[in-house]
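task queued by scheduler; priority normal; single chain, no ligands, no partner chains; default sampling; output format set to structure tokens
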Amino acid sequence: MLIVLGILFAVAPTVVWMTIARTRSVGFAIGGALLAGAGVLISVQQGWLDAPRPDVHLVFTVLAPLLIACGAGLEGRHEESPPPEWISRRNGAIGFLGTQFALTLVAGLLYALMLSEGSDAPPSEALPSLPPGISMVDEGTSCGSGGCWRAATVTSGDGLSRPEIIRELDLQQESCRSSGWLLDWRDVCVGASDNGKNVTIYASWGY
């Protein structure tokens, strides 16, 4: 269900533009750009592109109406006064896009508020990928005074020792990267630890 809603969210501006476009040249150019943006957004939603989803949704929701407004402005320079029925379609498009933007902005603010509480752990995708021969035994989340983190126990099917597993994962030292551009200002830090019995890989938030 969420996948369907995400796709509808992505293609909605293109559908809106199709209802108000009046010229072939500008209509196809703006429609193509909107479809390209929808393709990028869907790719991020499905995990095909590695990018922060909340930030991409917000940027898309801001840029899509601007692109449509530019297209309508370009058409207005080369066309006569639009018919009354087009005016009503335009007003409906403005209302729809305005509602979509408002909902995205509210969701973004709620997301930023949730981040400020520090009660969430990084997603499973934040854990480092495992090379062939190393597998995950279990995975879970924990919280403490410093926040929440995600951890997983890994083992080697090739008989590697614990230090060799850590070297194979290239996690001799903890590394951090940016988690987002706009809404999520935190870093996600990944590393590995050896407790004498098992190797644990983890992902935690850095501020």
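post-processing summary
- The chain is about 55% helix and 20% strand.
- The chain has a mean pLDDT of 87.
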